[in-house]
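User: tokens in, sequence out, please.
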């Protein structure tokens, strides 16, 4: 007997997709085939159009045949079909499963818009497996939340409408409707952790605890709720400590007023807001012990995957790794056009009163970087000052100072990008001038 509540699944999907185009992530496997079939045969008045999107990872010799199968199924169901070929990169670094998933979701993001909703077919056992994998990795509440029922995917939204449906019910539906699906042989390869759990560990668990998938999935829901509460606590702490979540730094003195668990919780929340990868527990503790608690005049750094954490004065800076920089580069400037630096940043001339005259710029300037001993007489000042002292006065972090472009006329310093212009090269009040600003 089929216990799959198709009407509730369709109603839930309609509720989440009103006014949007519905895309089904269709691998050709039984789960996504059932989801696609269920939608295509629903005859619901609010489901206007369905699109099947298939990702060809190119990892198996039969992948082109699988694509043909998926296209034929979509055609039979009168569903528009989209096939995208991807190149799976970073397999050695991420592992096959994670690398393929990354390539797949990147393709989804590139294809879908804010007017689209993607449906994926993960089910109850998938959720239980994900929680177990996260548990073995030592994850906290956010990781143990496993897979969210709804999440953002670039500009689009994605939902998992089968997350509370058992694999048994999905298989029974497929058999009742005589569906033909693809069996990917890699799904039986127990070298991959998820497959090892599915084929080696899970049968024993299910034999001992027949309702394990349902109860473990319920635990994931409890963890998701706990994770939401921790995020709310972090938001409260941000407000109470008057911290700006949009900035690239946090005040260390404020962080250290919190208890250690709340401090770590706030840092995790801030990292998530800034879309940085999460560090290990040990690495996060290093941030507190070796960076937050370091002397104010020291320059400590802790790093992990594509993240660097540094300290300057009372600020904790969390940032992407610094790009390679050539401090010996010299760039000629003869116009008001943008200037692209070797590290990808852009210099633009911003119109302003009492800036540098267009005549002085077009007559020829050069862009250079600090070598030591530079002097400039800032606008409105009677005497020259060393650039080194000015950078300290402006509270510029040490790792940024050698990367600030300097504009020269011959050997005379004309401007420090973003910060000041030489009094000698400033146009008189009321005249149009230009100021060099960095972007990126």
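Assistant: Sequence out:
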């Amino acid at each position: 007997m089929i216990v799959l509540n198709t009407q509730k699944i369709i109603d839930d999907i309609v509720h989440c997709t009103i006014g949007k185009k519905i895309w089904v992530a269709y691998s050709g496997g039984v789960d996504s085939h059932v989801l696609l079939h269920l939608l295509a045969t629903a005859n619901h008045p609010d489901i206007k159009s369905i699109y099947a999107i298939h990702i060809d990872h190119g990892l198996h010799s039969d992948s082109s045949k699988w694509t043909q199968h998926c296209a034929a199924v979509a055609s039979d169901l009168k569903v528009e079909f989209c096939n995208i070929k991807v190149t799976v990169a970073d397999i050695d670094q991420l592992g096959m499963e994670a690398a393929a998933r990354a390539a797949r979701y990147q393709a989804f993001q590139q294809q879908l818009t804010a007017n689209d909703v993607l449906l994926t077919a993960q089910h109850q056992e998938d959720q239980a497996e994900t929680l177990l994998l996260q548990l073995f990795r030592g994850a906290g509440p956010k990781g143990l939340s496993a897979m969210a029922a709804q999440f953002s995917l670039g500009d689009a939204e994605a939902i998992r409408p089968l997350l509370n449906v058992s694999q048994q019910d999905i298989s029974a539906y497929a058999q009742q409707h005589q569906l033909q699906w693809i069996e990917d042989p890699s799904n039986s390869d127990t070298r991959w952790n998820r497959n090892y759990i599915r084929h080696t560990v899970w049968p024993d668990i299910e034999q001992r605890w027949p309702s394990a998938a349902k109860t473990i999935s319920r635990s994931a829901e409890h963890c998701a709720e706990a994770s939401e509460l921790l995020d709310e606590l972090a938001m409260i702490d941000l407000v109470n400590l008057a911290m700006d979540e949009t900035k690239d730094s946090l005040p260390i003195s404020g962080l250290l007023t919190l208890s250690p668990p709340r401090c770590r919780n706030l840092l995790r929340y801030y990292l998530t807001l800034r879309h940085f990868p999460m560090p290990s527990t040990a690495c996060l503790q290093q941030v507190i012990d070796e960076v937050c608690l370091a002397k104010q005049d020291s320059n400590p750094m802790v790093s992990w995957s594509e993240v660097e954490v540094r300290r300057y004065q009372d600020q904790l800076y969390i940032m992407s790794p610094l790009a390679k920089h050539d401090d010996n580069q010299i760039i000629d400037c003869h116009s008001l056009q943008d200037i692209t630096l070797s590290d990808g940043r852009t210099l633009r001339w911003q119109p302003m009163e009492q800036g540098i005259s267009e005549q002085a710029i077009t007559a020829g300037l050069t862009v250079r970087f600090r070598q030591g001993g530079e002097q400039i007489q800032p606008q409105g000042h009677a005497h020259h000052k060393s650039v080194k002292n000015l950078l300290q006065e402006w509270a510029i972090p040490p790792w940024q100072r050698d990367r600030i472009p300097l504009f020269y006329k011959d050997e005379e310093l004309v401007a420090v990008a973003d910060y000041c212009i030489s009094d000698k090269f400033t146009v008189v009040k009321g005249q149009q001038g230009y100021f060099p600003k960095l972007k990126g």
